[in-house]
User: What shape does this take?
Amino acid sequence: MQKSRSLAFAFVAPALLVLAAILGWPLVSAVLLSLQDVRTIGSQGQWVGFTNYSTVISNPMFWTSVGMSIVWVVANAALQTVLALMAALTLNQNFPGVKIARTWIILTWIVPTVVVVIIWRWLFSTSGGMINPLMMQTGIVSRPVGFFSTPWTAMATLIFINSWRWFPFIALMMLAGLTRIPADLYEAARIDGANGWKRFTRITWPLLAPTLGVLTVVGTLLSFNVFDIIWLLTAGGPAGGTRTLPVMIYETAFKGYKLSEAATISVLATMLLMAFALVATRWLAKEGDSR
Amino acid sequence: MKKRILGLLAGASMLMPLSAFAAPVEITLWHMEQPPHRVARIQEIIDAFNTAHPDIVVKQEPQNWGEVYAKAPAALSAGAGPDMLFAIPDFTPILKNIGALTSVADFVAELDKKHDFVDSTVQSYSYDGGVWAVPLYNMAMSLWYRKSVLDGAGLKVPETWADWKAAAEKLSVDGTYGIGVPANKQLYTDQTIYSVMVNGGATEIYNEDGTLRFNNPQTVAALDYYAQLQKLSPPDSTSWTWGEAEACFVSKSCGMIMQFSVISSYDTQGGGDPADLGVAPIPHADGEKDHNTIAYANAVMLLSKDEAKRKASEEFIRYLLEPETYGKFLNMEPGLFMPVTADGAKAESFWGDPMATKYKAQIEQIIANSQNGRLFGFTSGRTFPSIAAISAQNVIAETLQSIVVGGKSAADAVAGGQDRMVEVSK
Amino acid sequence: MKRSLPATLLLGLSGLFLLLLIGMPFWWVVTGSFKLPQEIIARVPTMVPHSFTLQHFAKLLSGSDYPVYMINSLLVAGISTAITLVLSVPAAYAFFRLAFPGREALYRIILLAYAFPSIVVLIPLFGMFARIGLIDTLAALVIINVTFALPFSIWMLRSFFASVPKEIEEAALMDGAPPTVILRRIMIPLIAPGIASVGIFAFISAWTEYVFASVLILSDAKRTVPVGFSGIIGQYQIDWGLLLSGASLAVLPVVILFALVGRWFVSGLTEGAVK
Assistant: This one.
C-alpha cells in the first residue's frame, strides 16, 4: 500500500509541479500586483491595499464587461451546442462519404485563430468580401451591411466566428457520446413503433445529456478565455460593445498602462470563474455518481 | 593528424587575440515595418552598413504594432529589449516613464547641422528639457481622389468643409460611396479625426498647464462634421484600419479617402495611371484660411545603456541619414515615407527610384502638405505623459464612436471624451 | 435499415448546410490566393477565379521566413505534444486507479486550472521567464503549451482509462503485475486510439497558440506560424493576396498532418478503448 502510494505521487507529481509553477505562482504574483499601484511593466509600485478593488468595483465599465462576458459565454454555448448537435447527429448516420466528413469537419478547428480572424475579416468586409455581394444577390439585403458597425451585430458576428471555429470539435465529442449509445436500444424502440422524434427525445437526448453537461462546462471555461479573436477583430469595439473581461484586462494593462488595476480585474475574473467551475464540477461529479 | 591539430592550434592562437581585440559590437533594431518588402529593403541597408563597418553588427527584428505596446516595456524591463526602436511620438512617453530613454539633444544637434531637420519633426520629441528620439521619416495625411471621377461629376477639388461634403454627396451614386472615413476605435481613426480637427482650429488638446481642453466648440464642430462624412462612408467603416480604406479607394468603391499614401496599392491593384491619381490637402473649415494635417514623424529611440552599443547605434543612424542611403531607406514603401531632412528631400537616392519618378507630382504634393503637419498631444511643446494612455486607448476615436454608433450629440460626446481622457490620465 | 424520405431529405439538407458552412470559406480563401490583385478586391467578387497567378506565394516565400516559421511551429507543437503525453498518461492513470490521499481534491484543482483566464498569467510569466532566461526561446512556448494542454488531457485520458473493462486489469493484478507494468503493457496499448486523439489535441492547441507566442518571442528567427502570419498583416496597407496565400500555407501543414492521422483522432474520440 505504502509503495503504491509513493508510486501514485510519482505519477501525479510532474504534471502537478508544472501546473503549480506556470499557473500557481503567476496567480500569486497577480494577487500581489493587485495590491500595489504599478503602472507599466518594469516600474516600481507602492502598496495600496484594496484601493484597486474599490476602484474596479465602482467602475461601471467593469460591470458592463462582466455582463458582456456572460452574454458571450452563454450565446457561444447555445450556438455551439445547436450546431454541434446537428453535426453530430448527421455524422452518426450512415451515408456515402461519412468517414471523410467525420475527419474533415474538424478543419475549422485546426486553423490558427489569427488565420480565422483574417479569413472572416476579409469575407465580411465591404471591399472584396464575399458575404455582402452574396446577400445582395440573393435579395436578403439591398445595401451592404457593416457586420462590425453596431455593438450588437459585432457581438453576434464574433460569436458566430468563434462558434464556427469550435463547434466541430464539440461535435466530435458529442459523436463520441452518441456512438456509445447501444444500437439495440434503438432497435427495440423501433419494434415498439416509436418514431424518429420519439427515439430522439426518449433515447438519444437522455443518454447524451451527461456528455452535453460536461461539454457545456468545459466549453464555457474555454470560451470565457477567448481573447485573440475578439481583440484582433474588434479590439472590444465598436463603442465598447464587445469588451469582454479578457479584453478589458489586456486593454487596461497594455493600453491604459494600469498594470495593477488589470491584475485586480484578473483576480476578480478568476474568482468568478473558479466559483462557476467549482459549482459545475461538483454538479458533474454528482451526476457521474448517480449514473 | 598531429600536424593538422598543430596547424589548427596555431590558427586559433592567431585568430584569438585579433577577435578579442575587435569583437564586433552587436546591436539590435526593432521596427514595425513588417511587410516583407520593407524588411527586405532594410536588410539591404543593414548588410551594406555591416560590410562597411566590420566592428559593428546590426540585426533587425521586425515587430507588430498590435503587440509592441505590451512587448517593448516588458522586454526592456527584463533586459531583453532592443538597442534601437523605430516608433512614433506616442511611444516616447511610455519608454521615458520606465526610464529607458536619455536625451539625444546633442546627437540631434550634430545631425541637424549636417542635414537640417524639418523643425516640426524634432518638435514632436522635444519636451521636458530634452530631445528623446532622432526623427527618421515623416508621414502626413492627405486627401486622395481620382481626377477622372471628380471631372466626371463636374466637381473641383474641395477646399472647404462645405465643398467637401457637397462633393462626397455628389459622388455617392450607384453603389459607390462618396467618401470613406473610418470610425473604428483604432489609431487610423484618431488620425483622420485629428486631421479634420486641425483644419477647424482644434489643434491643442492640452492647456499650457497640462489640463485638458479637448472639450471646446471647435472640437465639437469638427466631430459633428466628421460624423456627417462618416454617414456617407461604407457601413463597415466602423471596423476599418488603413488597409480597408485603401482597398475601398483602389477598388473604386470610395470616391475619396484620407490616407498617408495610396501610391503603392494604387500602382499594383488600382490601374496605376499616375495622371489620374489626385492628392490634395485636407479641406479646412469654412472660416479658416490654411490647410493643416496630421503628421507622424517616426523616429529612432536609442535604448541601450551600454556606451559601445550606443556609439554603434549612433553610427548606424548617421549612415541612414546620409543622402546616398537615406532615399533608398525611405523608398522601402514608395510614396509613404517622406524625408525629415532638407538634404534628404533633394536626394537623388530618393527621387531616382522608379516609383518616385512615376508619381513625382503626388509625392511633391504630400511633402508640401506635410509642412503644416501636427500631432495631437505633441503641439506647442504641450506634451504630457498622459498622452500615451490617451492615444493608446484611442479616446478621440472612441468619442466619435459614441456619436456614430452610440447616437450621442457631438457636444455630449466631446464632453464625455474629455471625462474619459481625465480618467485614463489618472 | 432504410431511411424514410423526410429523414433522407433532412439528412441531405443538414449535410449540405455543414458542407457550405465549413467548406465555403476555405474555398474562397484558397481560390482567392491564386487570383490577381484586381480580381480579389473587385466590387463584384467571383466564385470561380477568372485569373491565375502565383505572385502572392512568390512574394510570401521570398519576402518572409515562412519556412522557418513552419519549422518552429512543428518543433514547438511536436515537443509540446510529447511532453504533454509523458506527463498526462501516468497522472491520468493515477487519478483513475491508484489510491492516494487528496486524490479527488487534486483532480478537482486540475480541472480548476481550466478556469484560469490565460491572459492573467501573461504579465507575471513574462517577468518569471525573463529571470530564468527563457524569453525569446522556443522552450518557453513548449512550457506554456504543455501547461494549458495538461488539464484537458488528464481529464480526457482518465475517461478513456475508465472505459477499459475492469476484468482485463483484474486479471493482470491477479498475476501479480505491478501498476507500472499494467499501465505500460496493458492499459496504454488498449487506449492507444484515445492517447492518439489527446496527442492531436495537444498538437493543434500548440500549433494555433498566438497570444503567448506573440509576446514571449522577440526575434524573427524564432517566430511560429501564427505570429509570423500576423506580421504580414501590414499596418498601413492590407495586401489581401499576400494574406490569403499566407492563410493557405498556414493551413497546409496541418491539413497534411490530418490527412495522415486525422482518422485516429476521430476514431480515438469515438471508440476510446472499447474494442
User: Anything to note?
Assistant: Chain A is about 75% helix and 0% strand. Chain A touches chain B through 38 residues (CB under 8 Å). The mean pLDDT of chain A is 85. The CA atoms of residues 58 and 160 of chain A lie 32 Å apart.
